[in-house]
Amino acid sequence: MPELFHDDDDIHDDVTSTFRGAAESLLQGTGYVHVDKQQAVSTAKRWLDGPFVVIDTETTGFHRPDQVIQIGIINQDGNTLLNTLIKPRTISIHNSQFHGITNEMVADAPTFPEVYPLIAAAVAGQRVVGYNLDFHLRMIDQDVQRHELPTIPWGDASRCLCVMELFAAFYGDS
């Protein structure tokens, strides 16, 4: 079984730079600030002040039968809480070309039910941040349901922050 708790510079750098980069961009706004921009900046400041975890996943695709094949979770200080590959049923060649994860790489990886307790422990009681967060949580929830595991209580919208949506609010994109 691969080591589950270790620092992986790639995941750490990707997740940390995604959140911090978006938050810093929001905080550096100058001059007139549109109401949505003001709200986005205020939200970013509030979230940076408190504890949270950042989640990033790689998957076999985007649809219902697809599965999580890698998960990274870091805390607000950038410390890795979980970073592991997850063995799915199979990974298509097309998807391997997209994210670089192959069937050979996950052959000896733990299954989702083996990783589930680590995910649940890492996010327990935490506010959760991610880029395109709804997608990541949906994919994790699909695997939870597929394996008939207890639902992970993500909490309401006040406990989950999608940095992609926050960034879009700041720049006026939808």
Can you offer a commentary on this structure?
This protein has 174 residues and is α/β, with parallel strands linked by helices. The protein has a single domain, classed as Nucleotidyltransferase, domain 5 (2-Layer Sandwich). It is built from seven helices and five strands. The protein has a five-stranded mixed beta sheet, with helices on both faces. A hairpin with a 4-residue loop joins strand 2 (68-75) and strand 3. Helix 1 (9-27) crosses helix 2 (35-49), helix 1 (9-27) runs parallel beside helix 7 (163-171) and helix 2 packs antiparallel against helix 7. The longest helix is centred in the N-terminal third of the chain and has 19 residues, at 9-27. Residues 1-7 and 29-34 have low confidence and may be disordered.
Task: Describe this structure in a few short sentences.
The chain is an alpha/beta fold and 174 residues long. Helix content is 46%, strand content 16%. It has helices at residues 9-27, 35-49, 93-99, 103-106, 112-123, 133-146, 163-171; strands at residues 53-59, 68-75, 80-85, 128-130, 160-162.
Which characteristics define this entry?
single chain, 174 residues, alpha/beta, 5-stranded mixed sheet, disordered N terminus
Task: Outline the fold blueprint.
Layout: H1 9-27, H2 35-49, E1 53-59, E2 68-75, E3 80-85, H3 93-99, H4 103-106, H5 112-123, E4 128-130, H6 133-146, E5 160-162, H7 163-171
Helix pairs in contact: 1-2, 1-7, 2-7
